[in-house]
Amino acid sequence: MKSQRMLALVGVAALAVSLSACAADDSPSSTSSATSGGEIVFGLDEDSTGPGASYATIAGKTIRMAVNEINAAGGIGGKKIRIVVGNDESDPTKTPTVVRKLVDDGAQVLLLDTGSGAVLQGKSVVKQAAIPAIAPTAVTTSVALAPDNEFTYMLANGVDQFAKAYCGAMQKEGHKSIAVLSDASPAINNINKLIIPILQGCVKVLAQETAPVDVADLTAQVARIKESGPDAVLVSSLGGNFEVLAQNTLFQQMPGVRRFSLASIGNQPDSWSRVDKGALADVVYMGALDKGNPKTAELTKKLKKLNGNDYRLTAYDAQAYDSVYLMKQAIEAAGGADNPTAVRDQLNKISGYKASFGQAGFTLSFSADKHGGADGLCGLVLSGFDKNNQPTGAWPEYQVPCKTN
């Protein structure tokens, strides 16, 4: 009996060790161990519960798909990728701690899949750690600019360029004035500081209304916007429930008025069915996807095979996928991930990478002086919806010219 009890205890201990090892492959960083010599560790700061979760989880899922794809093909230089995960909830006050924890857990490169405002607060820690980091979904231009940008990169066109596209669209339709309805998240606050001054150069901003991300009623804010009498309305939000509520309320109180939106609503398919039928027909958003881009078509095929034929590709998917493969390219060129500075130097040499988003032919390039990957404005694709709240693709009325900014 004594020997049987000993065997049982040994079996339980072995099972516990086995389960712990499996969990470390993709678990919160607090449970992960430091890297061993036989793997490459990607640190993923993923907002899975905060205001950016509506898009960060989309990107996070595709990051994992890309890593699995690379591992199935033999990894990078024969080494498999392991992901350690943290969650800063898009809260800039939490980002430095989360990034430090990822580094302590062995991360050799970082993917900052969180709000732009949070990424900005993480840059100094990234610089101190001297580990290359890509922010897949960041759209605040200052993410890629000094100070503290030596190891931090972004892919998408910045919101200052969004503003140029919106100005072109508004002028095309003859709008002279707009109002802005925003959530109160730090990321959107930073975006508005960039985008609104540019918009004021082409239209008059009559009203700016703000509400908490978890607001339950926007009737009062929209009533004030309506009273100001704008030709159009810009919804500036992280998406999710706030944008659904904003679009429904604007549709009910201001039917027929043109609405412009940041990328959020067009890149969050789960939101479309929660918006009143026909409420998105007057919305133009920054979709960043063009059916004529062969790289977009290729990624769409992969994601449909994995997630089912009803899966709708988003810009978040494309930017996440490209981020992983850009890191792979730099690590391969550096001869591995053991020297993060060498990986950073190889990122700075990437040129003409064909992106999975943007107009056909859109490319990404980095250099020591260019940490924003977008080569010109071709990463921007204004897009629309039909009366069934389904995306119709590139908006036929206006597209930003494909040229350098």
Written overview of the protein:
There is one protein chain. The protein has a seven-stranded mixed beta sheet with strand order 7-6-8-9-10-13-14, sandwiched between helices. Strands 2-1-3-4-5 form a five-stranded parallel beta sheet, sandwiched between helices. The protein has a two-stranded antiparallel sheet with strand order 11-12. Helix 8 links the parallel strand 8 (232-236) and strand 9. By secondary structure, it is of the alpha/beta class. It has helices spanning 2-23, 53-72, 95-104, 116-129, 159-173, 186-199, 219-228, 240-253, 269-272, 294-307, 315-334, 340-347, and strands at 39-46, 80-86, 109-113, 133-135, 152-154, 177-183, 204-211, 232-236, 258-261, 283-286, 353-354, 363-364, 382-385, 391-394. The protein starts with a helix and ends in an 11-residue tail after the last strand. It folds into two domains: 26-157 and 296-364, Response regulator (Rossmann fold); 159-287 and 381-394, Rossmann fold, CATH 3.40.50.2300. 41% of the residues lie in helices and 16% in strands. Mean pLDDT is 90; it is low at 1-25 and 27-36.
Itemize the secondary structure elements and their pairings:
Layout: H1 2-23, E1 39-46, H2 53-72, E2 80-86, H3 95-104, E3 109-113, H4 116-129, E4 133-135, E5 152-154, H5 159-173, E6 177-183, H6 186-199, E7 204-211, H7 219-228, E8 232-236, H8 240-253, E9 258-261, H9 269-272, E10 283-286, H10 294-307, H11 315-334, H12 340-347, E11 353-354, E12 363-364, E13 382-385, E14 391-394
Parallel strand pairs: 1-2, 1-3, 3-4, 4-5, 6-7, 6-8, 8-9, 9-10
Antiparallel strand pairs: 10-13, 11-12, 13-14
